[in-house]
Amino acid sequence: MPRFFNQKRLLFSALLTLAAGAAPAQTLFVGGYQVGGYTGGLRNLDTWSLELNRSALSVEQAMHWTNTFQGLAFRVCNITDSRVMYGLGFNNRHTIIEARYTDAAGVAMRSAFRPRLNELNIIVGYAWLDGRVRAGASLDLGFYTFARRDAPATEFDGSSWHPFHNGEPGLFNSGRSTPAVGTTFFVELAPFSKRGAGFTLRPYYQWQALPPSMFGRYGTLDPDSYEYFLSNVGIEANWAFCFD
Is it the case that residue 142 has pLDDT exceeding 60? Predict the structure, then answer.
């Protein structure tokens, strides 16, 4: 009997030790910058750039679609005592490409495109090593806009952005804004500070379940040449603040 009670006492002591060593709940405020690229590209931009470069009388700065984007990202996440993570985030992914050329009338022109995706992220995940390693996924709800700016070079800086497509906004019609739904899978690494704070790298992959997909330049459907792919891969460099 004494041996049995000694075993129970040892087991109870071990459980108390584990409980004392468990990380308390923590809240992370994260802000940073992201760069990446669309995994399928935006084929309509490739086609438009080629057409513009060939049709212009003189191209001083050719338009080339680089398939890259950048933007700010912010999140607030809570990590529970059981290391489950949940939170909300916001990010903006955009790029601007521009060409300078002389049109058939001899006027110096500037033309630019701006694809942009603004999203709200509903985040769930899990944390290891006191929050220094975190992994999970998010449901991404946002709006995609595609704007154009085209004007004589002398008037370009004062000109405004306008929709590339002249259709009305809608679920499957790319006007001023088009709903987009996606899922992001990510890993966050914060090796230089306790509790997951400090400098953080966040590689990720986003798959778009509901991207704008088949929109011609002037409201017509052309699935072969004018198709949007919003699925993307990228990396964020963040700074995180931790609060217990």
Answer: yes
